[in-house]
Design a protein that fits this description.
The complex is a heterodimer of chains A (246) and B (431). Chain A has 246 residues and is α/β, with parallel strands linked by helices. Chain A has one domain: 3-Layer(aba) Sandwich (Rossmann fold). Chain A is built from 8 helices and 12 strands. In chain A, the strands form 3 sheets. Chain A has a 6-stranded mixed sheet with strand order 6-9-10-3-11-12, with helices on both faces. In chain A, strands 2-1-4-5 form a 4-stranded antiparallel sheet, covered by helices on one side. Chain A has a two-stranded antiparallel sheet with strand order 7-8. In chain A, strand 9, helix 7 and strand 10 form a beta-alpha-beta unit. By secondary structure, chain B is of the alpha/beta class. Chain B has one domain. Chain B is built from 9 helices and 21 strands. In chain B, helix 6 crosses helix 7. Chain B is globular and about 70 Å long. The chains are: A alpha/beta (246), B alpha/beta (431).
């Protein structure tokens, strides 16, 4: 389980997270909702290990491991996956090569044998079919020239191949039309099960129609101000953050 | 400022001249008056100029001081033992050890003239030296060359692939060798020449090759150069290529080895619709200096030239790119493009880039660009969140940076040799 206690963090001397307390038990999907500037992206970056954030207090553990003391690749190795709000373009890096390198790095971390190009292609094609995506995705450079929707689909493809046990989705719904949104949600729902947890970070309730959360937390001003069941998302949508938080 | 060459540089020049005096009765062509005259003229030019110093604009960023200090003063009369040879990939291979043709290690085509220059010198009158420019290092080569590749591909012949392998031996003392390669591709003929230079890690030596290349009308020469000299070695190379109407000269050069390398390429497009592609990659780690200097001379109308150079610098290293494009008045409708980009992996690395366009024709499309940058932290983080360790992620981004330059190499044998030379570079530098 993911356990965050009293987490405070700042960037460039400005405090963004002001004491986050949050638990996501194994097998559950939790949503973190908040307005712009509430610290949503900072939370996802701090959990995945991006440089430039100063942790000033508190802790974050995953299955008892001190996440904050680990390199980003070690966090990935212990099952954590970050789906980016703005997936990064990698000109000159082929998507197939990228995905296979990542998969083999994780396999190596877990003490499993690497898989060769042929085995990988077979696996990737099967996943693409499940996700209703085109094989062309593999031939292109990572995210280069991808539409916003294609980039998010590529994030979901990575998640499906790398099979994390904790997926942090950072505003994965931003900039998606309804069809793309469904594909992304289907990808997450397909992974749902007793060994999979997810932290779905979003501004809008819309995504939660498709990925139904077990719990909803409201993040405002760097703190969780309210938690509840899935109906809390609808309440926020109807009444706005200001009223619910008050 | 002192107007005289530094003492070390000038004494090195004197040492090369003294060596020429000592060797001139032993060098190939000594009985041919025209060769003796070429060598004497070269000695005169080199004697007057000496080793290029940084006071010369073309050498502003590359200091040959370390070569002067190494003192390659001894005569080259070694009988080297055979160094280990890399796997042969092409059907044909010409091997040179310390600048001299190794017949027993070579596998040569029989259908055209291809072999030792020293053995075939009598066929090269009015050919040898015809394209040689009055440059000090070319003069040094003319003065002292002992051998080289002589290749004369007849018109219309498809020459396939040929490897040119240059190996430095464990001489146990600083040696210098100056191979002269004469290459003529007949009208409509084609050849892929894959050249690899290797040397022992610790050996101090100077490899100073000069290529005189002529590409006939409608002919194609793909020239892939993989420079993997030992890290204590020096390479100063000059390629001089002349391309006739409708011909193509493709040069790809990888600079991955040597303590100091200067790779100078001069190409002149002499007939309409001739083309020249110069691409390259330089990978320099701690203590290395890599210099690519190009000169593209558009001397006929409707010609095209493309240059893409990528330099990656790690540790305390220095990279240089100088690229001049000259478009003569006659060269209307020239299409020229030059791009050079550098990736700095350390704060101690330094790149100097000097693009230069000189255009006298009025109907011309000519562009150039240069960029310098570090690895993108966002890209690095993205790879690491997918479980790829930091050093492996950096290596992937270095490879990705090279792609545009390396993609110009289409021959599978050349691609394989190139992949072997660049693969694992960053992992080794980071170790």
């Amino acid at each position: 389980m993911l356990k965050i206690e009293g987490l405070t963090a700042e960037i460039d001397g400005k405090q963004i997270l002001k004491g986050i307390d949050l638990e996501v038990p194994t097998g559950e999907i939790h949503a973190v909702m908040g307005p712009n500037g509430s610290g949503k992206s900072t939370l996802s970056y701090v959990l995945s290990g991006r440089e430039g954030y100063e942790i000033t207090g508190g802790s974050a553990t995953y299955n008892g491991l001190d996440l904050l003391a680990m390199e980003p690749e070690e966090r990935a190795g212990s099952g954590v996956f970050l789906a980016f709000q703005y997936p990064v373009e990698l000109p000159g890096v082929g998507n197939a090569n990228f995905l296979r390198t990542a998969l083999n790095a994780l396999r190596k971390h877990r003490g499993e044998a690497e898989i060769d190009a042929m085995q990988f292609l077979k696996l990737a094609r099967a996943k693409l079919k499940e996700l209703q995506m085109s094989d062309d995705m593999l031939k292109r450079n990572v995210n280069v020239g991808f539409s916003g929707g294609e980039k998010k689909r590529n994030e979901v493809l990575q998640m499906a191949l790398l099979e994390p046990t904790l997926a942090i989705l950072d505003e994965t719904d931003s900039g998606l039309d309804i069809d793309a949104l469904k594909i992304v949600a289907d990808g997450v729902n397909a992974m749902r099960g007793p060994g999979f947890s997810s932290l779905v970070i979003t501004h809008y309730q819309r995504l939660l129609d498709y990925i139904v959360p077990d719990r909803v937390h409201v993040l405002i001003g760097g703190k969780i101000v309210k938690s509840g069941g899935k109906e809390l998302a609808l309440e926020l949508e109807a009444e706005g953050y200001a009223k619910v938080a008050a | 400022m002192n107007a005289q060459p530094s003492n070390a540089a000038s004494s090195t020049a004197q040492a090369f001249l003294a060596r020429f005096e000592g060797l001139r009765e032993h060098l190939p062509g000594r009985h041919m008056p025209w060769v003796a005259r070429l060598r004497a003229e070269a000695a005169e030019l080199f004697g007057a100029a000496g080793l290029p110093s940084r006071r010369i604009e073309a050498w502003r960023y590359t200091d040959l001081g370390p070569i002067a200090q190494a003192g390659f003063s001894e005569a080259l009369t070694l009988a080297p033992e055979t160094p280990a040879l890399p796997t042969m990939r092409a059907a044909w291979r010409a091997v040179f050890i310390d600048g001299r043709f190794a017949e027993n290690l070579s596998v040569l085509p029989q259908t055209y003239r291809c072999g030792s220059l020293a053995a075939g010198l009598d066929h090269t009158q009015s050919w040898l030296g015809a394209q040689a420019e009055k440059l000090p290092l070319v003069a040094l080569n003319t003065m002292l060359f002992e051998d080289g590749l002589l290749l004369d591909l007849p018109a219309g012949m498809a020459g396939g692939e040929l490897e040119l392998l240059s190996l430095a031996s464990h001489a146990g003392r600083p040696i210098a060798f100056h191979p002269r390669h004469l290459i003529r591709i007949g009208d409509g003929a084609s050849l892929t020449l894959i050249e690899t230079s290797l040397g022992p890690a610790e050996a101090v030596y100077l490899h100073n090759p000069v290529f005189e290349i002529s590409v006939g009308a409608g002919a194609t020469l793909a020239h892939v150069r993989i420079q993997r000299e030992g890290r204590a070695g020096f390479q100063l190379s000059t390629v001089q290529a002349a391309v006739q109407a409708g011909g193509t000269y493709d040069n790809f050069t990888l600079n991955a080895g040597a303590r100091l390398v200067r790779n100078e390429i001069h190409a002149v497009l002499l007939g309409p619709k001739a083309a020249c592609h110069m691409n390259g990659a330089q990978l320099a780690g701690d203590g290395q200096h890599a210099d690519t200097t190009t000169f593209l001379d558009h001397a006929a109308p409707d010609c095209a030239s493309r240059q893409t150079y990528k330099t990656v610098l790690a540790g305390k290293s220095r990279g240089v790119f100088q690229g001049k494009i000259l478009v003569r008045q006659v060269a209307q409708r020239t299409d020229g493009y030059q791009m050079n980009q550098a990736l700095l992996l350390s704060e101690e690395a330094e790149i100097d880039a000097k693009p230069q366009l000189e255009i006298y024709a009025d109907d011309v499309k000519c562009s150039h660009g240069a960029t310098v940058g570090a690895l993108d932290e966002a890209q690095l983080f993205y790879l690491r969140t997918r479980g790829i360790p930091a050093e492996q992620a950096r290596a992937m981004l270095v490879q990705a940076f090279l792609v545009e330059a390396v993609d110009g190499v289409t021959n599978p044998i050349a691609q394989a040799a190139l992949a072997e030379a660049t693969g694992g570079w960053w992992e080794r530098e980071a170790a």
